[in-house]
């Protein structure tokens, strides 16, 4: 004859522990998966084969850009306008024009095309200000046939 005492650990206790444990694990996994899918901004390239066909051309363009010897410095003013300094050595490069797109890094906001005007000191200033938040600036600078592309992050 077995006597059952109060507080004995039974199979039902173990079943309850396992159900609660795996229930929590599944809830966390589903929550994290939902958050990951909701913040995915898209792909880097749509077709990797087509991108690979342009790889050598991209390397040549990067080499030409390095030979220019330009140093590009970007700043974001307090009122959120983008300022671009383009220098060769210590002097500003004259006659440079710029176009850029401000892209929200998570794809939650629409891209903002930015146009730039040359200021009196030779630096470039965006015509429109960036909204608050994190932005990735993809810019292209041009001086006659010379092209310089860069990416900058702003918060």
UniProtKB/TrEMBL annotation:
It holds the Pfam family FixH. The chain crosses the membrane at residues 12-30. The keyword Transmembrane applies. Keywords: Membrane, Transmembrane, Transmembrane helix. This is Nitrogen fixation protein FixH.
């Amino acid at each position: 004859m077995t006597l059952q005492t109060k507080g004995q650990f039974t199979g039902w206790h173990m079943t309850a522990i396992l159900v609660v444990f795996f229930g929590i694990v599944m809830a966390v996994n589903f929550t994290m998966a939902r958050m990951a899918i909701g913040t995915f901004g898209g792909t880097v390239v749509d077709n990797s084969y087509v991108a690979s066909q342009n790889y050598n051309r991209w390397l040549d363009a990067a080499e030409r850009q390095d030979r220019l010897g330009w140093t590009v410095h970007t700043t974001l003013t307090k009122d959120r306008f983008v300022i671009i300094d383009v220098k060769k050595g210590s002097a500003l490069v004259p006659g440079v024009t710029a176009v850029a797109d401000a892209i929200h890094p998570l794809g939650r906001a629409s891209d903002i095309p930015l146009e730039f005007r040359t200021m009196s000191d030779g630096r470039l200033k965006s015509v429109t200000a960036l909204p608050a938040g994190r932005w990735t600036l993809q810019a292209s600078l041009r001086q006659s046939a010379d092209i310089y592309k860069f990416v900058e992050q702003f918060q």
